[in-house]
Design a protein that fits this description.
This protein is of the alpha/beta class. The protein contains 14 helices and 10 strands. The structure holds flavin mononucleotide.
């Protein structure tokens, strides 16, 4: 049984990765419904939360139906991070995750996200202080290192565990790689195989098929798979992986009717949560994947992503159903 603190997650949990502008409450709920064992919020800026910035505060929205849910925060200033923990606690998440992996320049340049991989003592100090500041489990998501010459993840993970981190999720790329090339899972397995490690080690990066999830479990021996891009517009992915684990077979692809129904629910939930305009925008990035593999689909997709009202989008869904079902 894999556990984050006392939260039981089953044998090889599948985690919905934190993804900005993707892992919002509607999408998390759909993924949960389709088998995600743990979900994370989008990353939230510590400084933004302290300033009470609307965008940051909204990301604190979590719901009982999606539990266990971790709220992910990023920042590099100790006092701000401690204040942030206090703010986040009020939303009552199951755990708080620290983002030590975001490669984006505007985050890294402030020493936050993957920027902290250049200052491991600060990373350890921040984690230590945050663990001591809350009763909630603190977990960490990070990358292998800053670049190829600084892959010290085995030692780093051990130090984070020693100061009380309750789980570590590792994206098998360095900051220098950004999202390029192929994720390397061997250094993640080295962390897991360190006999001193006892907290869960979750693998992340390029799990885009049930087979890959199985390789991560069976060949690399990791404690769970964190899945990002493969489930955008494809919340079924979690069920597909679980079915494959159980039977060794693939599930049928979702039918056109299942796809239009899911996409419609997604849009309705996004609008209910965030209003018409934002709801329309938020769901746009999912449509390509919801309808992946359908030939001659371009014009329908274009209409979905340029529609100005939900009725227009629903109308396109109806036409898709009629034409391709
Ligand atoms: C659109 C997008 C937004 C992301 N936002 C975050 C984020 O807020 N926090 C975070 O830790 N990682 C973020 N990531 C990284 C993912 O969590 C994950 O580490 C990465 O996509 C690799 O996993 P995958 O190959 O399964 O997608 C983001 C990735 C994408 C594609």
């Amino acid at each position: 049984m894999v556990k984050i603190g006392s939260i039981e997650l089953g044998d090889f949990p599948l985690l919905l990765a934190p993804m900005e502008d993707v892992s919002d409450p509607p999408f998390r709920a759909l993924c949960k419904e389709q088998g995600a064992d743990v979900v994370y919020t989008e990353f939230i800026s510590s400084e933004g939360l302290i300033r009470d910035a609307a965008k940051s505060v909204q990301k604190l929205d979590i719901y009982d139906k999606e539990r266990p849910v971790g709220i992910q925060i990023f920042g590099a200033n100790l006092n701000s991070m401690l204040k942030t923990v206090e703010i986040v606690e009020r939303s009552n998440p199951d755990f708080i995750d620290i983002n030590y992996g975001c490669p984006v320049k505007k985050v890294v340049s402030k020493g936050a996200g993957a920027g902290i991989l250049k200052d491991i003592p600060l990373m350890v100090k921040l984690t230590d202080a945050m663990v001591k500041h809350t009763k909630l489990p603190i977990t960490v998501k990070t990358r292998l290192g800053w670049d190829n010459d600084t892959i010290f993840i085995k030692e780093v993970a051990e130090r984070l565990q020693d100061v009380g981190a309750k789980a570590i999720a590792i994206h098998g790329r360095t900051r220098a790689q950004m999202y390029k090339g192929v994720a390397t899972w061997k250094p993640i397995a080295d962390v897991k195989n360190n006999p001193r490690m006892h907290i869960p080690v979750f693998g992340n990066g390029d799990v885009d098929s049930p087979e890959k999830a199985k390789i991560m479990r069976d060949d690399y021996g990791l404690d769970g798979a964190m899945i990002g891009r493969a489930c955008i517009g494809n919340p079924w992915f979690f069920k597909q992986v679980k079915h494959f684990f159980k039977t060794g077979n693939h599930t049928d692809s979702p039918t056109i009717s299942q796809r239009t129904t899911m996409a419609r629910r997604h849009l309705e939930m996004a609008i209910a949560w965030n209003g018409d305009r934002a709801g329309l925008f938020e769901t746009r990035r999912h449509y390509t994947n919801y309808f992946k593999g359908i030939t001659h689909f371009k014009d329908y997709r274009l209409r979905m992503v340029t529609a100005n009202t939900k009725e227009e989008v629903f109308q396109v869904f109806e036409e898709v159903l009629e034409k391709f079902n």
